[in-house]
Amino acid sequence: MSWAEFLPVIFMGLMGLAMFLYVVLDGFDLGVGMLLHRAEDSQKDMMIASIGPFWDANETWLVLGVGILLIAFPKAHGVVMTALYLPIAVMLIGLILRGVAFDFRVKAQDTHKPLWNFVFFAGSTVTSIAQGWMLGRFITGFADGFAYSLFALAIALALPCAYVLMGAAWLVLKTEGDLQQRAAHWGRAALVPVVVGMSLISIATPWVSETVAGRWFSLPQFIGLLPIPFATFACFVALRWTLSGQRALGTLCWLPFILTVGVFLMGGLGLAYSLYPYVVMDRITIWQAASATEALNLILAGCIITVPAILAYTLFAHRVFWGKATELRYG
Amino acid sequence: MDFDPVLLARMQFAANITFHILFPTISISLGWMLLFMRWRWLKTNHRPWLTAYRFWTKVFALTFALGVVSGITMSFQFGTNWPGFMEKVGNIAGPLLGFEVLTAFFLEATFLGVMLFGHGRVSERVHLLATFLVAFGTTMSAFWILVLNSWMQTPVGYEIINGEFHVKSWLEIIFNPSFPYRFTHMLLASLLTMAFLVAGVSAWQVLRGKANASTPLALRAGLTLAALLIPVQIFVGDMHGLNTLHHQPQKIAAIEGVWHTERGAPLLLFALPNEAEKRNDLAIGIPKMASLILTHEWDGELKGLNEFEAHPPVKPLFFSFRIMVAIGSLMLLVSWVGWWLLQRRGWQPDRAPRWLIGSIAAMTFSGWIATVAGWYVTEIGRQPWIVQGLIRTADVASTTPAPYIALTLTGYLITYVLLIIAYVSVLRYMAEKPSDSYDPVTSGGAHAPLPTQFANKETAA
């Protein structure tokens, strides 16, 4: 493989990394948003405080992911954006409402606060459902038909549950007392639909796509791939165990979050394996869609310098707000 | 009604960038203003500076959030509305947008958290650094996006191979002929918008009897900045216009309503451009003035729209430009008169005449109108091209059916209108609230221990 052929592979990896980080990082924001209406009023403020310093930067990973699609694979970008025109608009309006509600709810007069809380909840939910639908459409290469729509619908319901699990695990990590106990309970409740959803998707994906079926169910690949489902299963069992009783409420409070990240990571790896080398399933490969080599070289040079810096100062920001969340004040 | 999908796509994109630009226009320069206020507080230990900093930080956080969410929408609409654009110029536009995300978006978004909520968790120095990085990030963001926009107006440094644009020289692309003028003009627009916002909200507080010790400081800072920068902006705007005359003469012809090439063209103060008969109705103008301004000769020749095979629509440019200039003139008047009268009264706004304070308050959002009008001039002035003279907008539009675009356009418009109303009313609400600015951001009040050394001292001061 020459450098020119290898570059698109690097960018697919980078896009995957950005999307994975987005799903994990904004996943917990959206999950907390969807859980907001289940909490007491006094707890709502603490829930928002736990994501307050981060949500803005978390959302930026989506811009980077879409940005890489746009700048590294421009010929696929138009196809994807056109095919997903309506769900993208729905997601964007959801993201707009979620983002502004975060700020409005504490700055508007107190009587308007419940309204903005609802907007925050509704925006998070709409965004998550739209993202699930898009993921479902994307996996099947935007194929039309009842079975494909049903498949997209299943993912549209499963992904919000996964985000709720993520949000609950985040709250177990960042809060204490009654809220933390509730969060553990929410996490347990979300676990069942996530396991069912992920299993269904794992069965349905090869069923709706022959390419995926061929890629997974042939020897010796099948054996080499077994660690992915096994690791996912192990994460689920461990999640069930830690979220039960008092286990996650003490020093192990970080474990549910890490395990949920593990679940997402396995899901992401499985998806990446199913897709490669297509950027639009069965239609456009990464090499067909890629920009000119000189443009990719330049962006790669930029990424090599900036992405480690971005990761470093992201860690710095998390270190500044390390430990249990406290009330946010403007300094 | 039968709508043209390209027109709908343009309207949708225009609705989104119009909504978007309102917020960065404020936050790009408000970041620097916050840095200034924080620095004054650390330097002088004069508490009202801290009060001002905290109040405007809240405004900044709200403004920033609106800018971020509408900016994300834009990053998607490049693809949903103009899929052909990236396919053709992706090699040039891609890296520019990429560098904006990598060097600006992450920087501002990440350090925003530290800047807003990190006080007490990091040292004063790190906090000041975080504030600087946020301000720097917003400015870098403006840099990259204006490089791309200017390149679309005055494309250079490229070669076309098989219908695709390739880079010949990045240096030429980045410092393309209109970029230095557009970048300076926009940064000044941002500073002026913010200056009038800060002065205007402070004046509003005075009018409503809600002023505190920090109000005169903010009023003075805003008004002084405005009075200093507005003449610079008028000068830079003129240079920008001359640059446009050189590179995009059809834009100037539409602005001035010159249908046929003429010598000694008048400066039209008012007219109704008549697109069908290619003339101006009800024209009121100063003879030979347009020629003098643009060519520096009484009888200088101005190229008319008849000389171009494709030219932008005249009416929107003609009127947008006049609105921008009118607001600019008002800005000059209000800031100079206001500055003079207030400094004679030792910057005590309650001693100033009420009409003056009222005028300053009335100018609160004047920068928004001027900025949007200016952008309409430059963007509509590029039509029917998306890249001037090279790619037509209609050729890169998406194939999405018109009803889909109309549906989503309606959704966006409703959202945007409601959010602008919410933004302005919350700004007003915050301005009129008593200034115990240290109240917790996320508190319902139940368990919100106010540090006693901070509580309400500002109001007493």
Order of strands across the main sheet of chain A: 1-2
Contiguous low-pLDDT stretches of chain B (5 residues minimum) are 437-461
Radius of gyration of chain A, taken over Cα atoms and rounded to an integer in Å: 20 Å
Number of helices of chain A: 14
Strand content of chain A: under 5%
Most extensive interface: A-B, 72 and 82 residues
| Helix residue percentage of chain A | over 70%
Strand adjacency order, main sheet of chain B: 1-2
Strand content of chain B is: 5-15%
Please provide the ordered H/E string of secondary-structure elements of chain A: HHHHHHHHHHHHEEHH
| SS field, number of helical segments of chain B | 15
- How many angstroms does the end-to-end distance of chain B come to? 62 Å
Work out the count of structural domains of chain A.
1
Report the biggest beta sheet of chain B as strand number plus sense, adding barrel if it closes.
2 strands, antiparallel
Secondary-structure content class of chain B: mainly alpha
Class based on secondary structure composition and strand pairing of chain A: mainly alpha
Mean pLDDT of chain A: 87
What does the oligomeric state look like here? heterodimer
* Helix fraction bin of chain B: 55-70%
Which descriptor suits the 3D outline of chain A?
globular
Tags for this entry?
heterodimer, A: 331 residues, mainly alpha, two-stranded antiparallel sheet, 14 helices, 2 strands, globular, B: 461 residues, two-stranded antiparallel ribbon, 15 helices, 8 strands, disordered C terminus
